[in-house]
Design a protein that fits this description.
transferase; alpha/beta; 7-stranded mixed β-sheet; Glycerol-3-phosphate (1)-acyltransferase; acyltransferase; 281 residues; 42% helix
C-alpha cells in the first residue's frame, strides 16, 4: 500500500500564498475559470509546462487559496535526485510520478497535477513557444478513466513571452564539444536513458529577459482552468489505445484552443500598468 503525505503534513495554504507574493507582484497573474473546480470531486489536472517551469507554483498556490483544492504535482525523477529540492517539493504536496502514487492520490480524494510534456517541454527551442510535446504517453489518461474522474486542462500562458531564446538545443548540439561527445557515443547513451533520439534531448536553452540579462520580463501570466472533460464514456475502452489517444487529443486540443483565446486576451489587455508595458515592449 502506497502512503502519501496528507494535507495536514503539507505547507498551509496561507503560507504558500504569502511566500509567492513577490512573484505575483512581478508577473501579475490572472486566474480564470475557477467555476470549473468542484472541491469535493477529485480530478486530474493537466497543464502545459512553460519554459524553465518557473511558474507552476503560482498556479497551484492560487487554486489552493481560492478553492481549498491542492493540486498534487507529480515529480519527474530528476527532482528526486536533488535532496533539498525534493523535500521542498514534497512539502508543497508533490509526489514521485508513478502509477501507484497517482492512484493513491485519487483513492484519497486528492487531485493529481500532471505535465505530460515533461523535461522536453521545459527545454523548448526557438519557435516552440506554447507547443505541447506529449509524445505517445497515455498512462495518465488511462488512470483517470479507470478511476472515473474528470480531466481538467489548465492553460499556462504568458511566461514564454518573458524570455527570448538566444541558444537552444539545436545550436548547442552543433557546437564542437557536443559533436565530439556525439562521436564518442556519450550523447547516444544519454539519449537512450531518456528514451529519445539525440536530436530530441531535453537540453535547457539559454535565454534573455530584460535587456541581455536572464531576469524574465514582467509579462502578465494567465492561468486558465478549462471545463472538466468527462471520461465515463471511455470506461469500457480503457485497454483500447486508440480510444485513450483520442481522449488525450481532446485534452491537448482544449489547451491549444485556449492558448489562442488567451493570446487574443493578452493583445487587448490594457490593465497591465505603465512600468510593465515599458519593460515588456
Amino acid at each position: 500500500m502506497v502512503t502519501i503525505p496528507t494535507s495536514d503534513q503539507l505547507i498551509p495554504a496561507d503560507t504558500f500564498w504569502r511566500a509567492l507574493a513577490p512573484a505575483r507582484a512581478y508577473f501579475s497573474p490572472e486566474l480564470l475559470g475557477l467555476e470549473h473546480i468542484t472541491p469535493n470531486r477529485p480530478t486530474v489536472f493537466v497543464a502545459n509546462h512553460a519554459l524553465y517551469g518557473l511558474f507552476e507554483m503560482l498556479v497551484g498556490s492560487a487554486i489552493l487559496k481560492e478553492t481549498g483544492v491542492r493540486p498534487r504535482g507529480l515529480l519527474a525523477d530528476f527532482h528526486l535526485q536533488i535532496p533539498g529540492w525534493r523535500k521542498f517539493m514534497q512539502y508543497l504536496g508533490a509526489v514521485a510520478a508513478s502509477r501507484a502514487n497517482m492512484e493513491a492520490l485519487l483513492n484519497a480524494g486528492e487531485s493529481p497535477f500532471t505535465f505530460p510534456g515533461g523535461l522536453r517541454e521545459l527545454a523548448k527551442r526557438k519557435g516552440e513557444a506554447y507547443k505541447l510535446m506529449w509524445g505517445e504517453h497515455v498512462g495518465w489518461v488511462r488512470i483517470a478513466v479507470e478511476h472515473g474522474c474528470t480531466i481538467t486542462p489548465i492553460a499556462v500562458f504568458g511566461p514564454e513571452h518573458a524570455f527570448t531564446i538566444m541558444w537552444d538545443a539545436n545550436d548547442m548540439l552543433n557546437m564542437a564539444p557536443m559533436r565530439m561527445l556525439a562521436r564518442m557515443g556519450v550523447l547516444g547513451r544519454v539519449a537512450d536513458a531518456y528514451g529519445v533520439d539525440i536530436n530530441e534531448l531535453p537540453i535547457s536553452p539559454l535565454a534573455r529577459g530584460i535587456g541581455l540579462s536572464p531576469i524574465p520580463r514582467p509579462e502578465r501570466c494567465y492561468f486558465s482552468i478549462c471545463a472538466p472533460i468527462e471520461t465515463a464514456e471511455y470506461k469500457d475502452r480503457v485497454d483500447d489505445r486508440d480510444a485513450m489517444m483520442a481522449l488525450r487529443d481532446q485534452v491537448s486540443g482544449t489547451l491549444e484552443a485556449e492558448f489562442e483565446r488567451l493570446e487574443r486576451r493578452r493583445s487587448t489587455d490594457e490593465n497591465i500598468g505603465f512600468l510593465r508595458k515599458l519593460l515588456t515592449d
